[in-house]
Specification:
This protein is mainly beta. It is 7% helix and 37% strand. A hairpin with a 5-residue loop joins strand 22 and strand 23. Belongs to the selenium-binding protein family. Keywords: Selenium. Pfam families: SBP56.
Length: 482
């Protein structure tokens, strides 16, 4: 039987047996990205405008390179668009009827889930459907949706961080069917996590692992260190049987693993190891399967807090808020949102990561800031942060996305509007920006691209906050191989 020939959203014609790629290494050889979708937020800025999905031109040969070329506002106010996922990815590669067409946009605050059609016009996506928060709440009791992943079954699974009152005990996993109707909860009754946040599944090991931010009633009001002591933030990984939804094990990361956020397995589906970034303690923790089939964890990378003057605390954590792994599983990248740096580590030996690239692109301790680092000898220090196209870099690096070939790293700088207001009020006033960092994917190394700068200060409805990024053809933080 002849293979089905289709035209993909990046304009290339290919033989396709379903969306995505047969393997991570095949994905690395995929076409260069030309568009990137960015969730942009007005919620919490006081501007009274709906959040929107921006389309940014990332084709260096295009006359609109490094510019927002379309904006899709959502129909309601107060959503706080945050993370996003696809209706189908490489986990459905062997299914000819599956199609990576719809981008799923959960709203972290309102609970609405928007389904966006990116296929009719990839440069100007359109709204396909709204899954109303009230419908989700009525059928599942879930609220505060965060991470969305497609499943090989065609369903879509979304982690939800609490109940309608913002209590973490109400967290769990929402299932939508392929038509985006609410099916129910994924986890078995009585198997909800202590706190919800991110998740990643590795089917060959019959395992899903989820992480834990905190109770929405706490984090939506801004960060309060007392709330950590009060038990309103997480420090656990939850190990589930896949696809059965049974909570098999809870890993307590202890004082080294406070606020574990983004969770990634290695892309090679045969591997039984992955990492989680623990924000408050600024540690990368590696989790892995033990010989007896249970799961364990160890500290992989630690970012020391800096002794500072003129800040709210005498020491400043790096605050690791996002990380990712290159598709060949050679490099791990993460950001320190408060310090302001982006790091690259070689993880070919997963037990011994090696720092291979480091660049400063913002942060609270950059030159010109009132906050200074106090060195051991009593001298003070500040980071030398480059200007790009004459613009001083605002905020700190927050979300990152890597090109399929591993040579370009895109960076935005908004975390969550309430936390932005608390730590970087300037970006609420002046808006986010988006950068691109050139990557040496052979020997290691990072260098800011001076020709790329998307300034969300100049948006038609006023400065906005830019968060997560997705390519039309998928990427290393949305695609899972089975």
């Amino acid at each position: 039987m002849a293979a089905e020939v289709v035209s993909s959203s990046n304009g290339h014609v290919c033989c396709n047996k379903g969306p995505g790629y047969a393997s991570p290494l095949e994905a690395m050889a995929g076409p260069r990205e030309s568009l990137i979708y960015v969730t942009c937020i007005y919620t919490g800025t006081g501007r009274g405008k709906p959040d929107y999905l921006a389309t940014v031109d990332v084709d260096p040969n295009s006359p609109t390179y490094s510019k927002v070329i379309s904006r899709l506002p959502v129909p309601y106010l107060g959503d706080e668009l945050h993370h996003s996922g696809w209706n189908a990815c490489s986990s459905c590669h062997g299914e000819p009827s599956a199609d990576r067409r719809y981008l799923i946009l959960p709203s972290l605050v309102s609970g609405n889930v928007y389904v966006v059609d990116t296929q009719k016009d990839p440069k100007a996506p359109s709204l396909h459907k709204v899954v109303e928060a009230a419908d989700i709440l009525e059928k599942t009791g879930l609220a505060y949706p965060h991470t969305s992943h497609c499943l090989a079954s065609g369903d879509i699974m979304i982690s939800c961080l609490g109940d309608k009152d913002g209590h973490a005990k109400g967290s769990g996993f929402l299932l939508l069917d392929s038509e985006f109707n609410v099916k129910g909860r994924w986890e078995k009754p009585g198997h909800s996590p202590l706190f919800g946040y991110d998740f990643w599944y590795q089917p060959r090991h019959n395992t899903m692992i989820s992480s834990s931010w905190g109770a929405p009633a706490a984090f939506t009001k801004g960060f309060n260190l007392q709330h950590v002591s009060d038990g309103l933030y997480g420090r656990h990984l939850h190990v589930y049987s896949w696809p059965n939804g049974e909570l098999k094990q809870t890993l307590d990361l202890g004082d080294t693993g406070l606020l574990p956020l983004e969770t990634r397995f290695l892309h090679d589906p045969s591997k039984d190891t992955g990492f989680v970034g623990c924000a408050l303690t600024s540690n990368m923790v590696r989790f892995f399967k033990t010989p007896d089939g249970s799961w364990s964890h160890e500290l992989a990378i630690s970012v020391k807090p800096l002794k500072v003057r003129n800040w709210i605390l005498p020491e400043m954590p790096g605050l690791i808020t996002d990380f990712l792994i290159s598709l060949d599983d050679r490099f791990l990248y993460f950001v320190n949102w408060l310090h302001g740096d982006v790091r690259q580590y070689n993880i070919e030996d997963v037990k011994n990561p090696v720092l291979t690239g480091h660049v400063w692109v913002g942060g609270l301790i950059q030159k010109g800031s009132p906050i200074v680092v106090e060195k051991e000898d009593g001298d003070t220090w500040q980071a030398d942060v480059p200007e790009i196209q004459g613009k001083r870099l605002r905020g700190g690096p927050q979300m990152i996305q890597l090109s399929l070939d591993g040579k370009r790293l895109y960076v935005t700088n908004s975390l969550f509007s309430t936390w932005d207001r608390q730590f970087y009020p300037e970006i609420l006033e002046k808006g986010s920006h988006m950068l691109q960092i050139d990557v040496d994917s052979e020997q290691g190394g990072l260098k800011v691209n001076p020709n790329f700068f998307v300034d969300f200060a100049a948006e038609p409805d006023g400065p906005s906050l830019a968060h997560e990024m997705r390519y039309p053809g998928g990427d290393c933080t949305s695609d899972i191989w089975i």
